[in-house]
Amino acid sequence: MTADVVELRDVSRWYGNVVAVNGVTFSLGAGVTGLLGPNGAGKSTLLHMIAGLLHPSAGTVTVDGRATYGDPEVFRRVGLVPEREAVFGFLTGRAFVRLNADLQGVAAPADAVERALATVELTSAADRSLATYSKGMRQRAKVAAALVHGPGVLVLDEPFNGMDPRQRLHMMDLLRSLAADGATILFSSHILEEVERVAERVLVVVAGRLAASGEFREIRRLMTDRPHAFELHTSDDRALAAAIVARPTVAGVALENDRLVVRAADYAAFTGELAGIARSAGISIYELIPADESLESVFSYLVRG
Amino acid sequence: MSTSTSPGPTPAGAVRQPSRGRPAALGPLWRLMSLALLGRRRSLGVLLLAAVPVLVALILAMAGGLGSPATIAVDVFATLTLGLAIPLVALILGTGPLGTQIDDGTIVYLLVKPVPRRTVILGAMLVAAPATAALAVSATLLSGFLVLGTTAPELQAGMAIGALLASVLYGTVFVTLSVLTGRALVLGLGYLLVWEGFVTSLLPGTQILSIREYAMAVTNAVAGIDPARPGSGVDPLVAVVAAAAVLVIAVVLGVWRLGRFEVSEAG
Amino acid sequence: MATPPDVLAGSATGSIYDLGYRRYDGPRLGRRHAVEALYIYSLRAVFGLGRSGRAKIAPIVLGGLIALPAVFSVGVGALAGGQASRMNPITLEGYLPFIQTLLVFFVAAQAPELLVRDQRHRVLTLYFSRALERIDYVSAKYLALLTAVALVLGLPQVLLLIGQLFATPSLSDGLASVVPVLWPVVGRTIVVSALLAGVGLVASAFTVRRAIAAGTIIAVFLVLSGVVTVLVNRVGLDGPLALVALADPFALMDAVSALLFGVEPTMSAILRSDLPVWAFAGTAVAVSVACPLILLLRYRRIAA
User: Per the CB < 8 Å rule, is C235 touching B59?
Assistant: First the structure.
């Protein structure tokens, strides 16, 4: 049983008035986890904090139990593949990976470099300068540079940006095989399908907050299957409550504060039925208000995105 | 924290060693930054600038100058070498290693390493200052030789030492400037033109804060020349102390700022 | 439920809706208007109009500083009367040496704004996919910067002319003193502006970083001027060596002033070399003509 390798506890990060990350708590173990969220949600900030580049304004970020910021040793355990495209164009692929190996203090750097290059399948192009690489090759070079010191944790910021389908498949296979060897991998994306295909777990981040976490399929199910609550104001709440509680689409009714609160298990079907039920019972509906609109809008935004 | 039990792809047979400390990381950093400086345009510009005083000295030597060789040599040195070539070369080479990397974001690769940040900036300074000094001193010696031949050794030594001092100071200061701000080139030019070119000649009191004045003071002291205008210029001893102070401040400031540097995200 | 939108084209399985968007089928103004629009846009951009406040600081401050000696001079003349104005060193003919460095700063600050950003963000494709030809782009930008520099240089001269107009007791005397200088003022302004704008734009056309372009412009003027000054002070420049003096841009500008106003040149490069004043002025004109040609060549070959 592996202890969770990466742990964030109530982590927040702000820049002046702007809160980029707000009270995020999660932990990661071996395997591939996807960090999903729209642009500006704070994904890069979280990744940079895990990589030890930023310090959290509040909370703790630890890797193997050690705080990530201010501890140079953390850099040996974490490999970061940054989002920005620029690399040292004047270096060859091999020289670039070798530079990273040297700076990491890897023993037997030449072998480590060759191994890393082989893992990303860049050995044949390794002697060309990075400026001549295609975008996919450059991403692979960045991954090789992040792997050369054999980190336990690999953090990738939007690794599939701008990749064509073949390169994307290749990268996904690579991540999966690394995870199978026991690495903890966290990558960010704003595209649902990418995360779905390669991540076992998903962390959903919206506006700096953790909106959902867990297995992707389960979250998907929860989004559509969770009971939705409505508030109704009608001409005869009690009679309507009696009529709808018999329906299988309704999970529960409550009469509170002279309103009728309905929890619907299948909201699409429920909303379709409601008008008919009310009319046959001779009841007029004055108001129908979804009670948890904000969360609903969050999830529906994500599903659309 | 035993390293052998942590998960993750470990190159077979590699034993992770404790941090090897500065010397080992400095080498690769130094090589990287030297390579970063060797761009075609940058090298060309820098060589051209350093060649200017040499070419002028050549013309003066061939055409026969007005005034004694010593005054000619000092004129060329003060106006062209110290006044133009060295600061501009230092500006180009100083903002090169770290400045461009901060600008395009590749500095990330240097910061996510178990290398102390002071090593990173020291590496940059150890590339910029010596490169500038090499060009500056060669240009000075060459132009001095062309005008003076092998005569006036104190003057030639004085100019060379002044050039060395100026290169080291300018180079270090501009590296720190490139870490402090994204507009290092413009601000450096502003300092050179407005402060050193204008303000210090208007307000002699401000000469205590000018690298050019330090270098000139040292040159004059070694060469045994009195300053051109009595009462202007800085006392050589004061100049050396001030120069040392500027150097220390630049290094400390640079280390401190890079230590706090946070990579801006694309969001 | 709202009524579904009108269908623009459709079948059983898919439709395109008519949302009221219209194509533009009217007359298109064509190439000349495109060039004019780019010219006006570029001229405004030089002064930071149409951009944030920060973009206006440099041109306004520098423009103000360039006009300052003229304001000073006119003020002194108005307040202190005839004797002071006779001792006043700030004259119309000799105005350039006071502000030529500031003019270089102005061009170094603003010329990159015109060309570098388009290259850096690769929008040249957008420009050339319109009715605009490459020669149009270059001409518009060049003329815009030339106009801007001419305005900046012209303002203080106009102020001095006005001062001169009212310095004499009668208006007709004033006019008599001003009218003969009008053509030299215009001529000098045009040539100097063309020279500065040309060099500034050529330096900006080859890089994607504004700071490098600005630095190059300043360095070129400083280095050339410094080198020639040292040489001229130290060496008797005769024979072919004297041609070196033609490299001093400030001397070129001074020669234009001297030639047009009929006064003695002040720059040591002219005084100490044996070359006639018209050689310098001719070089100035030649460089002013060569620069836009270089720009044309560069933009003919640039990838877009």
Answer: yes
Instruction: Say if residue A101's pLDDT is above 90.
Output: yes
Q: Which chain C residues have a beta carbon less than 8 Å from that of B75?
A: 230, 233-234
How many CA atoms, within 13 angstroms, populate the side-chain half-sphere of residue B143? 31
Mean pLDDT of chain B: 83
Beta-sheet strands, E only, within A29-113: 31-36, 58-63, 66-67, 78-81
Q: Are strands A153-156 and A184-189 parallel, antiparallel or unpaired?
A: parallel
Does residue A102 share a domain with residue A238? no
Residue C271 in contact with partner chain B when CB distance is under 8 A:
no
Q: Which pLDDT band holds residue B171 (cuts at 50, 70, 90)?
A: very high
- CB of B70 within 8 Å of a chain C CB? The answer is no
Number of domains in chain A: 2
pLDDT, tens digit, for every residue of C105-136?
999 999 999 999 999 888 998 999 888 889 99
Residue type, B211: I
Cα radius of gyration rounded to whole Å, chain B? 21
Same domain, A178 and A299: no
Answer whether residue C80 shows pLDDT above 80: no
As a whole number of angstroms, the longest Cα–Cα distance in chain C is 95
Domain boundaries, chain B: 22-259
CA-nearest residue of chain C to B42? Answer: C212
Q: Determine phi and psi for C42, rounding to 5 degrees.
A: -65, -40
List residues in chain B touching A: CB distance below 8 A.
1, 6-11, 13-17, 19-20, 24-25, 27-29, 32, 35-36, 38-39, 104-106, 108-116, 262-263, 265-267
Together in a domain, A198 and A238: no
> How many other C-beta atoms lie within 10 A of the C-beta of residue A203?
25
- pLDDT of res. A226: 57
Domain of residue A105, residue span: 6-222
Are residues B112 and A52, on separate chains, in Cβ contact within 8 Å? yes
Higher pLDDT, A156 or A194: A156
Does residue A169 share a domain with residue A231?
no
Closest Cα in chain B to A97: B109
The verdict on A152 touching B (C-beta cutoff 8 Å) is yes
d(CA A159, CA A120): 13
With an 8 Å Cβ cutoff, is A102 touching chain B?
Answer: yes
Q: Which residue type sits at C51?
A: R
Q: Do C226 and B79 touch (CB under 8 A)?
A: yes
B190 touches chain C (CB under 8 A): no
Q: Is A1 within a domain?
A: no
Provide the pLDDT for residue A258. 83
Nearest beta carbon to residue B56 from set C212, C230, C236: C230
Mutation target vs B (from C225, C227, C273; most B CBs, 10 A cutoff): C227
